[in-house]
Amino acid sequence: MISPFTGGNVTKTYKFETFTFRNEKFNVKRYYYVCNDTGRSFSDSEVDDLVFYEIYDQYRKRHNIPSPQMLRDLRNKYNLSAHTMSKIAGIGINQYGLYENGEMPTIAIGQKLALLFDKNTLLECLDKAQPKLGKNYSKVREAVEAYVEPITISLAKKSYKDFFETLQITLFPKEINTGKKARWSTYEPSYAMA
């Protein structure tokens, strides 16, 4: 970034400012640039957009309104089209599309959308939308009912030493004497390890 006043260097800095959005106040870190030669401050669309995104983010958190990405992720999780999801939510397709693309819903609609993240509530709304879904209702309901959250297992909490001690006890209980009892004393691997 160069200074629009002198073409010289600038310094990026910030200050906290209070902004009003939908009659509510939000304290936001506002970035701007200072011309090193003149001391004059200025901004550009990039740093101005950061203020806008921060206000929206705080508003969403304050009122439990899902973000556009969360809405897309929910829809993709069940492999639903935006058109189908709009019918389930009871919102017009054009308006629902705007919410997925960043427009801020009202608090009431935002909280209604947040309720859809609970599978049972989603199924209830799906049942209420049956007349709108027509012949697709059964297929959509089966897809939502059949979805099972993936289980993730993390070994990151194990220490490096504990992981290999466990590995050795599990794979080679007869060959390694670690002073611990092997859980499977008769286990013999059926594959060769390099």
List keywords for this structure.
13% strand, alpha+beta, 194 residues
Describe the structure.
The protein is of the alpha+beta class and 194 residues long. Helices cover 46% and strands 13% of the residues. The chain contains nine helices and three strands. It has helices at residues 45-63, 68-77, 82-89, 93-100, 107-115, 119-128, 130-133, 137-146, 160-171, and strands at residues 10-21, 24-35, 41-42. The chain has a three-stranded antiparallel beta sheet, covered by helices on one side. A hairpin with a 5-residue loop joins strand 2 and strand 3 (41-42). Helix 3 (82-89) crosses helix 4 (93-100). The two termini are 55 Å apart.
Fraction of residues in helices?
Answer: 40-55%
Strand order of the largest sheet: 1-2-3
Spans of 5+ residues with little confidence (pLDDT < 50)? 168-194
- Which structural class is indicated by helix and strand composition? alpha+beta
Largest sheet: 3 strands, antiparallel
Mean pLDDT: 85
Number of helices: 9
- For the termini, the CA-CA separation is 55 Å
Number of DSSP strands?
A: 3
Instruction: Classify the beta-strand content into a percent band.
Output: 5-15%
> What pattern of helices and strands is seen along the backbone?
EEEHHHHHHHHH
> Over the alpha carbons, how many angstroms does the gyration radius reach?
28 Å
The coarse silhouette is elongated
